[in-house]
């Protein structure tokens, strides 16, 4: 069966001397694995269009056990990412996150749209990497069915208070008056950071990347979004570790405070 769709290559493996196996986030088929024969040959029409982080028009043959890429035409190569190791490493983390959360062999247009916009801003350098990281983490988690409840305090339903706390494990907000004793790791959020965190999951897509925070706020936002991803998925990402090692500025680790003792678990680089 022939399938025509658009897709972003989010992972690649070398197969033999000339073939390539790729994982592709497609608009119509979700995440698929497909063979690109002769793709490693320099003169192959598939050489650039099936490499990591390339967005292409694809013509696929769906066999019994795997997809075969018959034709691939590159649309966007995101050259700017390959000029900067920090941006490239963050893009690779986005790809690993998409490979974990996006559905397989079903429509995934919203995931693809999120990835393409984030990679565009990252490639052009027109948005802070920390901002893009938080947006991708929170929006992709929400698309995958892990949307936290950030509307109001889970205890008294107040929208905002002098102190608001985010619990990554439960995905809930509490004000200072309602925060349960022994509720586990939490993060205190400044008002602007709480507004930004809500924006990442509730804003219309056209406005999703249109907000600003000073660097301390971006670090706090990044700690909240990353803590949520790692707590909910209960796994680490090797690409995230590599991004940390490449970042030019301190990327806050996701240690959080214990409510009852105030002890610091893990390290904080705020």
If you had to describe this structure to a student in words, what would you say it looks like?
Helix content is 33%, strand content 26%. With 270 residues, it is an alpha+beta fold. The strands form two sheets. The protein has a six-stranded mixed sheet. It has a five-stranded mixed barrel with strand order 1-2-3-5-4. A hairpin with a 3-residue loop joins strand 1 and strand 2.
Distance between termini? 53 Å
CATH topology of the largest domain: de novo design (two linked rop proteins)
Largest sheet: 6 strands, mixed
The CATH architecture designation of the largest domain is Up-down Bundle
Shape designation: elongated
Structural class: alpha+beta
Count of helix runs = 6
Properties at a glance:
alpha+beta, 6 helices, about 25% strand, 2 domains, about 270 residues
Brief overview, please?
The chain is α+β, with helices and mostly antiparallel strands and 270 residues long.
Topology:
Elements: E1 2-15, E2 19-26, E3 30-36, E4 55-62, E5 67-76, H1 85-101, H2 109-124, H3 129-143, E6 149-153, E7 164-167, E8 172-175, E9 185-189, H4 191-202, H5 215-233, H6 238-246, E10 256-258, E11 264-265
Parallel strand pairs: 3-5, 6-8
Antiparallel strand pairs: 1-2, 1-4, 2-3, 4-5, 7-8, 7-9, 9-10, 10-11
Helix pairs in contact: 1-2, 1-3, 1-6, 2-3, 3-5, 4-5
